Amino acid sequence: MEPMVTEPQVLRAGEPDDGRVQSATSPAPVRTVSKSPTRIALARLRRDRIAMICAAICAVYVLIAIFAPLLAGLEGQNASDLHQNLIDEFGFPTIGSTGEHWFGVEPRLGRDLFARWVYGARPSLIVAVAVTTITTIIGVVVGLVAGFSGGWVDRVLSWLIDLVLSLPYLLFAIASSAVLVAIFGGAGGAGSEDVAQIRFVSLICVLSFFGWASLARLVRGQVLSLREREFVAAAKVLGIPTRQVLFKELLPNLVAPIVVSVSLALPGYVVAEAGLTVLGAGLIEPTPSWGLTISAATTYYRADPLYLWLPVLGITILVLALSLLGDAVRDAFDPRTRR
Amino acid sequence: MLIYILRRIASAVSVVIVTLVASFGLFFVAPTDPAGTICGQRCTPERYADISASLNLDEPVVQQVGDYLKGLAVGRTYHSGGAAIDCDAPCLGYSYTLGQPVTKLIGQALPITVSIVLGGAVVYLIIGILAGVVAARRRGTYLDRLMVGTSLGINAVPYFVVALLVSLYATFLPHSAYHPLLENPLTWAGGLLAAWLTLGLANAASYTRYSRASMIETLGEDYIRTARAKGISERRVVYRHGLRAAITPIATIFGVDLAIQLTGAIFTEAMFGLPGLGVLTLRAFNQYDLPVLMAGVLVGSVVLVVMNLLVDILYTILDPRVRLG
């Protein structure tokens, strides 16, 4: 990022202290490395031990999701094979965890639990990352435009932001995903794979629809105060096109609030996906998902605790790591909030 | 002040109207077959015709919205299997899958949601504020750090996981079920206890942090020093002088939270099997019961908008420093 220096104390804090002294005494040009506020914040984050542990845990999850087929292959199973020979007549598995099925098999259907678990990391992460990306882009653009243009554009966009923020989120999410599914999947004959795919996309759409507004409001507020600053006035006087002022002059100053909002949004969407799925309003079979496994496992929680606890721990540890990392990122970018 | 309130009411009404029109458009005008989805899988042609005629699906969209609004104001009549069903005002539609007016269904569900949320609120306000005050008074001690750490930990665990695990494993609590308050207050409280404790303890974690922060700020004020200098007891300083001022920002957060919980208690309801507004909407989702879905969204947004309005107005009364033109 180009340093958009607005704070005098972060102006040039590059080469150790003698750098400035040298440049004052000797006329020879001294190469000074300017540190942007983002680099300072990242350096602060790197020193935070809890943040680094959480980042490592998140990285492990990403690796599990990417290499799910490989991990399942290592065990020699896949997520969709039914092992009916391992299921007794009451639907209970006859084996626990064995060398062949590391986490055992599902009651009733007999699918391999380890394979389901590693594949289950995928929808959680894909939904969370996709929704965070979409909402961040929409929120930033709407906030920039609303804050910078003012007038009726601002009034319309602000009203839209207020509207989305005052909708009953969960009720609306359930209702609108019903309609989305009816619109795209209602034309009978769609296989269960297709319907699962539609549910996947519609979940991302619904979560994105409700997610962008709070960031847009935040960005708009920041832009309102930034646009009165001298560097924006200077850019305008120079005749720089509005689009360039927005994205080259204003955006770099908004990196901190945007990064903080992204890092706090990610765990939120992991929870939203899993929560809606557990309720039956999110993803559906045959997508391997932790939420689905949890809702299926509640009937077997006494007979087969591992079945319930693996996805529960999967979600909880991921969310815990993401939230603590998010808190650490916020502290690094805005030291005033440090506890 | 009056102008401010009027302007807020106008914007609140505009939000409700847009929600109504948007959800109507979504559910009845989108390229789906509302009569078909309402009718369900075992649909006879007569029933299909009944539903189409009752919903005036052959009329222009504006007319349909008008009919819906008229139903809200003065009631309307639906036809099912040859019989006419009167739906009294405020009529939110007729659920063909359940064979009941939607208003009645909502009327049954709402008290359950309100009971859960208000009971939970009592738990988290008491525990959260007391814990926050204690933490603020012992700021920096081991106890303070333990409380803040615990509260961060509780908040980082997804709420639905907490609710699920409590509902499965906390079998020592009375069995969850809803009994009307007026019939027998004791069974009412017993059936809701598990839900109250779950909702309450999970939220108490964040209220501990809010009230701790607010209390630390207040205890640093000059008038607290003056109160101490007068020589009144520490207890009185903290609770009479400190807490009373510190509680204003918490009241605002509480108002907003209450609104969100009233429309989003769905996890608590679903995990503990309490048929409130969220579970009603969820059931409607599973059966494509469009009138119920739409009414759920509509009632939810009215609750949310009204609560936000009340919070804004109450805030100007609670805190005289806020004066809006």
Summarize the structure.
The complex is a heterodimer of chains A (339) and B (325). With 339 residues, chain A is an all-alpha fold. Chain A contains 13 helices and no strands.
Written description of the protein model:
Chain B: Keywords: Cell membrane, Membrane, Transmembrane, Transmembrane helix, Transport. The complex is a heterodimer of chains A (339) and B (325). By secondary structure, chain A is mainly α. Chain A has 13 helices and no strands. Helix content of chain A is 67%, strand content 0%. In chain A, helix 7 (169-185) crosses helix 8. The longest helix of chain A is centred in the middle third of the chain and has 37 residues, at 113-149. The radius of gyration of chain A is 25 Å and the shape is elongated. With 325 residues, chain B is mostly helical. Chain B folds into two domains: 2-90, no CATH class; 103-318, MetI-like (MetI-like fold, Orthogonal Bundle). In chain B, helix 1 runs antiparallel to helix 13, helix 5 packs parallel to helix 13 and helix 12 runs antiparallel to helix 13 (290-318). At the A-B interface, helix 6, helix 7, helix 11 and helix 13 of A face helix 1, helix 6, helix 7, helix 10 and helix 11 of B.
What key attributes describe this structure?
heterodimer; A: 339 residues; mainly alpha; MetI-like fold; 13 helices; 67% helix; B: 325 residues; two-stranded antiparallel sheet; 4% strand; elongated
Termini separation of chain B: 6 Å
Low-confidence regions of chain B = none
By secondary-structure content and strand pairing, the structural class of chain B works out as: mainly alpha
Oligomer kind: heterodimer
Domain ABC transmembrane type-1 (chain B): 110-315
Membrane topology (chain B): Multi-pass membrane protein
Subcellular location (chain B): Cell membrane
GO cellular component, one term (chain B): plasma membrane
